[in-house]
Amino acid sequence: MSQEPLIQINHMNHGYMMAGQRMPILQDISMTVNHGEFVAIIGPSGSGKSTLMNMIGCLDLPNSGEYILDGQNVRKTSDNRLAKIRNEKIGFIFQSFNLLPKLSAIENVELPLIYRGLPYRERKKRASQALEQVGLHERMYHRPNQLSGGQQQRVAIARALAGDPPLLLADEPTGALDTHTGKEVMQMIKTLNQQGHTIILITHDLDIADQAKRVIRIQNGVLTEDRRNPE
Predict the structure, then answer these.
(1) Domain 7-228 has CATH 3.30.230.40
(2) CA torsion through residues 182, 196, 163, 42, sign
(3) What is the pLDDT of residues 49-102, one digit of tens each?
(4) Residue 160: which of 81, 79, 94 has the closest Cα?
(5) Residue 80: beta bridge partners?
(6) Which of 3, 59, 8 has the alpha carbon at shortest distance from 171?
(7) pLDDT tens by residue, 14-61
(8) Pairing relationship of beta strands 198-203 and 167-171 according to DSSP bridges
(9) pLDDT tens-place string over residues 95-146
């Protein structure tokens, strides 16, 4: 396991221009995430957690400060390089699953591997293994509308896993699920962390956040708490 942090954010600031003035969203954010951690970032609507998620996920770049992901200074990179970093370094798990309805489960899982340029047989092998890992090997040729919400989220988790990225970034992963299914998905996420995957989970739900090993709270664009839960 690497001794260097997976994520190092130093004095990150970000805002948007409105009526000729910059409205601050993130203010002097500094945080470190080590390999193998399971971190929840929690905050109410408007707290800045979604903007912070976009920064961590390389979907946007901060106005100032430093973001180093797996040894790379993200803020000083081109758009093409940023897309490559997203594809290779981050596995995204979204609340709304973001599956393409006309593709089967295995074809959805393959998509990031196609963009990475992997050969056909290697893509199929990795996608099949990822679906087996989440317990959906027998449903790999089902389309999303033939799967339950929980199964769709498991396909999304398999898609995130298939490329073997150093970071899994989960945005409200249980938000579209019923309570029972949400518990199953959270158990799967915890199991993945126990297997060594680094996970950052974005949520507004304290019960969900408290299942992580570490909880970071954001309020009005400022980190207000960083605590570790007992093992």
Answers:
(1) no
(2) positive
(3) 999 999 999 999 999 999 999 999 998 888 888 999 999 999 999 888 999 999
(4) 94
(5) none
(6) 59
(7) 998 888 887 899 999 999 999 999 999 999 988 999 999 999 999 999
(8) parallel
(9) 889 999 999 999 999 999 998 999 999 999 999 999 999 999 999 999 999 9
